[in-house]
Amino acid sequence: MMKTMNTKLISTLSAFALCAGALHVNAQVQIAPIFKDNMVLQQQTDAPIWGRALPGHTISVTVSWQENAIETKVSKDSTWRLVIPTPGASYDPQQITVSADGRSRTFSNVLIGEVWLCSGQSNMEMPMKGYSSQPILGGQDAIVHSKNDFLRCFTVGKAMTLQEQESCTGRWESASPNTTAEFTATGYYFARLLQEVLDVPVGIIHSSAGGSAIEAWIPHEAFTREFPKIAIPNDISREKKKVLVPTVLYNAMIHPIAGYAIRGAIWYQGEANVGRYQEYPRMFAAMHDAWTKRWGGKRFPIYLCQIAPFRFSDQAGNAFLREAQMKIAQTQPDTGIAILMDTGEQNCIHPANKQVAGERLAYIALARNYGFPNLPYRAPEFRRAEYADGKATLIFDHTGSGFTSFGQPLTGFELAGADRVFHPATAAIVNGKIVVESSQVPDPVAVRYAFRGYIRGSLYGSNGLPVSSFRSDNWDDVR
Description:
The chain is α/β, with parallel strands linked by helices and 479 residues long. The protein folds into 3 domains: 107 residues, Immunoglobulin-like (Sandwich); 258 residues, Rossmann fold, CATH 3.40.50; 91 residues, no CATH class. It is 17% helix and 29% strand. Strands 1, 4, 6, 7, 9, 10, 11, 12, 13, 14, 15 and 16 form a 12-stranded mixed sheet that branches. The protein has a 4-stranded antiparallel sheet with strand order 2-3-5-8, with no helix packed on it. It is elongated. The chain starts with a strand and ends in an 8-residue tail after the last strand.
């Protein structure tokens, strides 16, 4: 007979809400349905499992990797929660059995490995099969060769609401030619590289919505505290773009899964916030802090894709948002950024090359979370400009072994004098620095690089990663 370990019951489920379609052990007991056959559990952690049942009933969980069962009693508010210690990653399938009142439900083909949340708007949502007339570069070939039982995805069904939900839909699926077409492309390429390098099972939880603003992904409590002047409507039924309404996507698509053990999150969003770039760093910080709280207080990293260049109506357009995203990565803890200056498309806001996006995010995770500190994962980052003799000498951090333009001319540089009028400038790599000059600007006081809505980046670190667009000025009115 198995020995029983009693665990401390947490009586509130504010951070660990139920999903709908819950699996029933009996008529009264429910298990959050992110817990399903084929799931991947985060290795070497205390992984929560939770649900609802009649108060006072005993819930028992047994797992195939340890002898002892884990028990708790259902709290007065009808919620129950247990913490399962997970072993190291393994390709061996495991089982989890939840029992109550003599009945049980067993989850089979469970793997222990690495788990990441993938969230954002349409560029994260974009599946491996692409959108209509917007394919994924190399997507068909990748789908055909994707069979891998150790790479799995749970896609949260799209929904929006003003109230925090105990419901979501979705199922765990292994990568295969029959399933991968529907996987998030950025998330798939991220997970594929992690799985290849780490040689462990990898699971991704995909929760994104095209056209969504970052405000929609922030919980109500955090949003109203940090942004009290931004109104939240009482009814979204008449809202033309519901995905822009604060809190609605957190409520329906994050809250139900909050608490499922993960290593971290990747984030590809920002196009919907181009016109509100000033607030973006604060909103990202509010989201990150709130998600941390809802996951039980243990902070996890969120690595973001910088949005790619695109021809917005404002010619500087997303350059300001890209700058805001760089600020996040440079100033906020547990963040990192994948620069996509070389993947943008002038007339398509959804770059076809999602492999670059996913793998650059994976570089960050491998270097910072998985013991590969010597893996280059960031390009040089602009620090300051020095002006002398009619030239601007640009100083960078994280220069590594220097710069390259892959044999092509450096383009996209501009200089301005005291009149604040920018003119095209020439640039050269000189002794590990960038020197910029323009015959039209004899006394420069400001420099910009690739600071346009759509532009093709020309400057790279010698590690092959593109340098972000940047500016030395703070002239937001100069576009």
